[in-house]
Amino acid sequence: MDFETTLRVLTELAGAIWVTLALAAATLPLGFVLAALATWARASRHRVARMIAVAYVTAFRSTPLLVQIFVLYYGLSQFAWLRESPAWIVLKDPFACAVVAMSLCTGAYTAEVMRGGLAAVPKGAVEAARALGLSPLKVLFLVTVPIAVRRALPAYSNEIVVTLKATSLASTITVMELTGVAKDLMSQTFAVIEVFCMVAAIYLAINTILIMLLRALELRLTPLHERPKPQRTARVARPNAAL
Fold it and tell me: Where is the chain membrane-spanning (predicted)?
């Protein structure tokens, strides 16, 4: 590619970065809320709530995200009653539909992460808090949640990165994020390798920064006695030179 074409490609890709970040920024909070509700339902005493939560998590973890996007965007539009309902305001928009599909998917995976974090909370810590006379609410927010967050953060960090990369699937329903713009530029310039190498470099840069930030947060939340200690190398004394 010549300089002008390269500059135009970089300019359009730079504009698409914000669409990719907006997709991830809208998806992750919604997915987190869905995961919290599913985790609460699975821990509920009500059998129906547990069954609904298990069915939701199993269904969305067992099917590809691309299929879920297609079902929501193309499949649901076949029903006339849905097109006349208020839900169609969201489902007819590609961006909103992609956010809904990805939120449902990441919510199912995050629910498993939360369940694993809660299961990793030592029972002795909870029993000790109860023995001190703390109320169930204080035990939850002062003992259970902080420990569960620390245990679940590494797995949830991976889910955040996976969700950011999964935004590329939104291009299949005409959302012009990074991958969608790249496919459009590829058809215009026929520079397949150059364009997609630029896109790969952008994804790599974004995810590297994100991983570093999440790693710093993970280290910040880790107690001092659990942090990895820097290894010290043994110093070997130099023998005195023979006189």
Answer: 16-41, 53-76, 88-110, 190-214
Closest by CA to 181, choosing from 8, 2, 1, 16, is 16
Whole-angstrom distance, CA of residue 212 vs CA of residue 215: 5
Q: Is the pLDDT of residue 228 over 80?
A: no
Of residues 237 and 13, which shows the higher confidence score? 13
Pick from 69, 61, 65: nearest CA to 97: 69
CB–CB of 34/111 below 8 Å?
yes
Whether 174 and 181 have beta carbons less than 8 Å apart is answered as no
The pTM of this model reads 0.87
Domain spanning 3-124+131-223 has what CATH number?
Answer: 1.10.3720.10
Contact 115, 39 (CB under 8 A): yes
Residue 102 has pLDDT above 50, yes or no: yes
Cα distances (Å, whole numbers) of residue 20 to 107, 128, 166, 206:
19, 46, 10, 10
Neighbouring CB atoms inside 10 A of 70's CB total 15
> 23 is written with which tokens?
């997709």
